[in-house]
Amino acid sequence: xxxxxxxxxxxxxxxxxxxxxxxxxxxxxxxxxxxxxxxxxxxxxxxxxxxxxxxxxxxxxxxxxxxxxxxxxxxxxxxxxxxxxxxxxxxxxxxxxxxxxxxxxxxxxxxxxx
Length: 114
Ligand code: 5GP
Known about the structure:
CATH class: Alpha Beta
Largest sheet: 5 strands, antiparallel
Protein name: Histidine triad (HIT) protein
Bound molecules: guanosine-5'-monophosphate
CATH topology: HIT family, subunit A
GO molecular function: catalytic activity
Order of helices and strands: HEEEHHEE
Number of domains: 1
CATH superfamily: HIT-like
Pfam families: DcpS_C
Number of strands: 5
Oligomer: single chain
Distance between the termini: 34 Å
């Protein structure tokens, strides 16, 4: 049995982290190290999928639910426009192997990172 991911531990209240939005199957937290004025992580409540490739093949509805919540957050906290990033693998800067979307918004012109 592997250890719960840091995101599961936040969801379970074992470590601090405010849930800023959620649906039945997905939750969102502010990134602890924001790379843009809006930087939210949108995460499935279960950690059965490591990355978006597995998620898309295994539960496309859940992926669609993540995208819908991302759009909702971008509408509420930015102008509805957003950058959606999935890192896939350690050499692509993935550090938490519980699939999550980075939702970035309110990015100043010329300040696109990564
Ligand atoms: P990855 O590199 O796996 O795509 O993204 C992991 C993200 O999780 C990083 O952007 C990192 O800042 C964020 N993160 C890591 N630990 C915590 C934490 O304890 N709380 C929050 N809110 N974000 C975290």
